[in-house]
Every structure is written in structure tokens, then in C-alpha cells.
Amino acid sequence: AFDVLVVGGGPAGAAAAIYAARKGIRTGVAAERFGGQVLDTMAIENFISVTETEGPKLARALENHVREYDVDIMNLQRAAQLIPASSEGGLHEIKLENGGSLKAKTLILATGARWREMNVPGEQEYRGRGVAYCPHCDGPLFKGKRVAVIGGGNSGVEAAIDLAGIVAQVTLLEFDSQLRADAVLQKKLHSLPNVTVITSALTSEVIGDGQKVTGLTYKDRNSSEFHELELEGIFVQIGLLPNSDWLKGTVELTSRGEIIVDARGETSLPGIFAAGDVTTVPYKQIVIAVGEGAKASLSAFDHLIRSSVE
Ligand code: FAD
Hints:
The protein is of the alpha/beta class. The chain has helices spanning 11-21, 55-67, 135-138, 154-164, 183-190, 286-306, and strands spanning 2-7, 27-31, 43-44, 53-54, 71-75, 79-83, 92-96, 101-109, 113-115, 131-132, 146-150, 169-173, 195-198, 201-208, 213-220, 226-230, 233-236, 240-242, 272-274. 22% of the residues lie in helices and 29% in strands. It is elongated, with a radius of gyration of 21 Å. The mean pLDDT is 97. Flavin-adenine dinucleotide (FAD) binds next to helix 1, strand 2, strand 9 and helix 6. Keywords: Disulfide bond, FAD, Flavoprotein, NAD, Oxidoreductase, Redox-active center. Serves to protect the cell against DNA damage by alkyl hydroperoxides. It can use either NADH or NADPH as electron donor for direct reduction of redox dyes or of alkyl hydroperoxides when combined with the AhpC protein.
């Protein structure tokens, strides 16, 4: 059995594995795809101390760093079920989709999240070439340009307010007949001179010139007419889905599926920790996931040294 078993090999899982291995304890990482969301990212300019890098390059660096240590890396392994220890100090079990099973004294759950997509023509083709999901990451790339934000919930309205300070013009498109964001955010949004809000709008296509985004088409749900907007960027803000379906009924989750953790990264179950985008920790960023992974790992170590000797 492992002392620490990390589930997930993104920035949070990689950091957790390195911190555990440096304590000289038996450490394993089971990941469906080592690298996580970083693999789907092109320009990364906000991982502090690395001025500029590309996702696949950073993912390789994460893996190489983990491989410097005695860590059992189990790539292409998808966890299907968590069976918590039946008694304090017992072993937790992770059942894998391939039928295998792994046991550990402590667990660090770091299975990340994924952006909800619009599923319209052009979205995949222009992903990273005008279609973006993270205003903190990609906002500055659109300085002085025109962008749309899709989604009028809190994250969409926050993104529109944020982007309005960087870009020339923001158009916020909401499917419903009204925005769903908090009133205080809506008030701020409406006070901004370079933001236009269009409600009852169903985005139907991302348009591009083969290289990059040049606009989008939306359907006015009241008149059923289609309209076109010319712009350079589209920020999709219709939800971030935590990869926690497999945990339902075990560790406590919020209604949105985020694993509830305390300040030390511990979940509702003793000896089971979590880190990164899959948790309730706000602001889903690489630098934050790395810090949270390190923290959860130190907490797991602290748990181990306090557990009764068998
Ligand atoms: P993830 O990176 O999501 O990793 C999760 C890991 O868990 C993966 O290895 C996955 O395969 C694995 N996994 C999932 N389910 C299971 C399972 N059931 N069993 C086993 N393994 C599983 N952040 C920035 O700071 N700067 C940026 O510029 C930036 N740009 C981004 C651009 C894009 C297009 C995207 C999608 C995200 C971007 N982000 C950026 C966000 C950043 O990538 C995430 O915040 C970060 O990767 C979260 O790390 P994580 O380790 O928590 O999760």
C-alpha cells in the first residue's frame, strides 16, 4: 500500500507527488492523462517565474520533475470509485476503471475540472485561436480588440467587467431573457461604457478566416432571427465542471460538484485530502493548483505522522 496516493496528474497532482516523495514515503500517482488541462493550453504567461511557456512544454516539465523522485506513476489510469477506510487508520481504496485497485493510508484527490463548451460549429476549430475560456489567462491577448463573453451568470459578468478594462469592446450574450449574476455585479456591468448586453441570444456558430476568429452568429430567441457580430475573441463562461462524479456519496461535495476542503486541504473524510480545480478553492489557475497540491501533501504527511503506529 502507498503512504500517499495521488489521483490526478495535473499541476496539483504533480506538486502533491513531489512534496510527498521528498518526505521519503511511498508515493503513487494514478492519472488518466498526466499533464491535465495544461496539455490543452497554448500560451501560458502567468506561471510566476516562467515568463512565457506552452502547455505541452509545461506538462512535460511537470512530469520530468515528478520523475526525479521515487514516485510510482500510473498514467492512463482512470479512477472509478473511492472506498474510504472502514475505520480510523485503515486503508483507503481506489478502484480503477480497468478493474485494478490501489490502496493507501492517505489520498490526495486532484482530478481537476473541465470547461463546459457551447458545442457549436467552429468552437473546437478556433479553440486557442480566439475561442478562450479563462479571462485571467487570455484576457491580455485581446488588448484593444473586440470580444464577446458567452454567459450571464456570475462568472460571465465578472469576466465581462474584467475584460472591459483591457479590450476595446465587450458584448455579453445571455441565453435567458435576463442575466443571472448578482445584482451588484450587474450594476457594475451596466455602468461600463464599452459593454453591450444582449439577452435571449443563443450563440449558434463561431466564424473564422481559417486562422483565427472573426466573429460569431447568434439567434435572437424572441424573433428567431440570426445576427452576426464581428469580433476577435470569444470567452465562453457557461460553467466549470469538476471531475468528481466518481466521488458522489463519499467525500462531501457542493451542489456544483466541488470537493469541500478546509484550509489544510482536508475533505470531510479523515486522511483524504484534495487539491486544485476539483475543490472549493476559488480561482482555478495553475499557480494556485500547484500551491494547493503542495499544501494537501504536507497535510497528508502531517496526518501520517500523527496516526497510530501499526
Ligand atoms: P487538471 O489540470 O484538470 O488535472 C486533472 C488530472 O486528473 C489530469 O491528469 C486528469 O487526467 C486526471 N483525472 C481526471 N479524472 C480522473 C479520474 N477519474 N481518474 C484518474 N485521473 C483523473 N491556468 C493558468 O494559470 N494559466 C493559463 O494560461 C491557463 N490557460 C488555460 C487554458 C485552457 C484552454 C484551459 C482548459 C485551462 C487553462 N488554465 C490556465 C487553467 C489550468 O490549466 C488549471 O487551473 C489547472 O490545470 C488545474 O490543475 P489541476 O491539477 O487541479 O487539474
